[in-house]
Amino acid sequence: YPDYFSNELITDLYRELHQHLNENHLRAAHIGKGPQRIQSQNIRGDSILWLNGGSAAQRAYLDEMELLRLAFNRQFFLGLTELEAHFAHYPPGAGYQKHLDSFQNDNLRRISIVTYLNPQWRNDDGGELLIYQEERVIAEIPPLGGTLVCFVSEDTPHQVAITHRERSSIAGWFRVRALDTVAHPCG
């Protein structure tokens, strides 16, 4: 969805991400979960900072995402309960190899979202989001500021192509509650 967000909000989020970057608040991203959690620049080259609602821009963004969560639940009966999201910064030469957004034996992430913060982007800047169907790329989405991308987390293989300039975004996942945390009516 191009231009999903206002230019003002995207600009504020972009500035905040770069302020955190300049203050060394972002950390190298990992892949996997639990004992399988590793850091591999060859697979994933971004640095991240989890959103916590600590700024006006983050709160405005999270409010927008809450409206989207409610709309998804109303329209598709998904039972989405929360959003986890982080800033993501890819330096030139970085990307993220083809992957799914759900962990093995943990499919709590249902809908993946990507929000692009880049103020300008040219076709030769790289960094496209590549969406796959089996081994074939079926969509190449440039990271244009204000664009929102949504897809099913556990069924949509995707990749971040190598970027030729700094690439800024927010990656997130609408999740459902784990079954063991849901109160059971019989006890």
Describe it.
The protein is α+β, with helices and mostly antiparallel strands and about 190 residues long. Helices cover about 20% and strands about 30% of the residues. It is built from two helices and ten strands, in the order αββαββββββββ. It has helices at about 5-20, 55-75, and strands at about 25-30, 45-50, 80-90, 95-100, 110-115, 130-135, 135-140, 150, 160, 165-175. The strands form two sheets. The chain has a six-stranded antiparallel sheet, with helices on one face. Strand 6 and strand 7 form a beta hairpin. The protein is globular and about 40 Å long. It starts with 6 loop residues before the first helix and ends in a 12-residue tail after the last strand. The model has no long low-confidence stretch (mean pLDDT about 90).
Largest sheet: 6 strands, antiparallel
Q: Provide the succession of SSEs.
A: HEEHEEEEEEEE
Give the C-alpha Rg: 17 Å
Instruction: Indicate the proportion of strand residues.
Output: 25-35%
Strand order of the largest sheet: 1-2-3-10-5-8
Q: Are there runs of 5+ residues with pLDDT below 50, and where?
A: none
Shape, please? Answer: globular
Number of strands: 10
- Distance between the terminal alpha carbons, to the nearest Å? 44 Å
Helix segment tally: 2
What share of residues is helical? 10-25%
Q: Average pLDDT, to the nearest integer? A: 90
Query: Strand pairing plus helix content: what structural class?
Result: alpha+beta
